[in-house]
Amino acid sequence: EIVMTQSPATLSVSPGERATLSCRASQSVSSNLAWYQQKPGQAPRLLIYGASTRATGIPARFSGSGSGTEFTLTISSLQSEDFAVYYCQQYNNWPITFGQGTRLEIK
Amino acid sequence: QVQLVQSGAEVKKPGASVKVSCKASGYTFTSYGISWVRQAPGQGLEWMGWISAYNGNTNYAQKLQGRVTMTTDTSTSTAYMELRSLRSDDTAVYYCARGGWDKDAFDIWGQGTMVTVSS
Questions:
Q1: What tens digit of pLDDT does each residue of A38-65 get?
Q2: A101, A6 in Cβ contact below 8 A?
Q3: Are residues B45 and A46, on separate chains, in Cβ contact within 8 Å?
Q4: Which of B108, B114, B111, B117 lies closest to B5 in space, CA to CA?
Q5: Do residues B88 and B11 lie in contact, with contact meaning Cβ atoms separated by under 8 Å?
Q6: Residues in contact with A60: Cβ distance below 8 Å, sequence separation at least 6, in sequence order
Q7: pLDDT of B101 above 90
Q8: From the CA of B40, how many Å to the nearest CA of chain A?
Q9: Is pLDDT above 90 for B103?
């Protein structure tokens, strides 16, 4: 199975600043990579699919990049509602696998 | 609007079974697949398996093979996930999520169903 590793585990950033989250796959997943946001008590929400395509209704401050084994989620100017846990997911191979998550907290 | 609505919370004893439902609305059910994802308290997301709502094909996580069965009822646009021989480490929130014909990202999620396994 493909292991997805996210870094850092926790990221402390001030509102208005940029946040950069990383995700590494143990083998190539091409561009079959998604990012999700999860807030406490809520289901995950799809942000990015195909490594770089924003899902419907996702603000332009969220952007994804990368292919193969290295991926990045960038939030250009953090808003208060962006503080949450973020997961990457590969859907190139069965079984589908998730990273362990990055907690984005207010600095 | 497009949504997935799941059944309510369950409390089960070790060794029992649980069956969670996920009713789809607002889209053509048979044009997509449904995955099930669980999240133990304070932990990350774990993919459990996928079912095609078109033809019933399934793909299960190896660690759950033999204990999990996913089915659909196209007449009611409902997907089901049954987990047997429950253990305490099956305590989690269980989510259904809409995906594509095959491996795909999950664009719509159910609200989650808490399953507690306790003696």
A1: 999 999 999 999 999 999 999 999 999 9
A2: yes
A3: no
A4: B111
A5: no
A6: A54
A7: no
A8: 12
A9: no
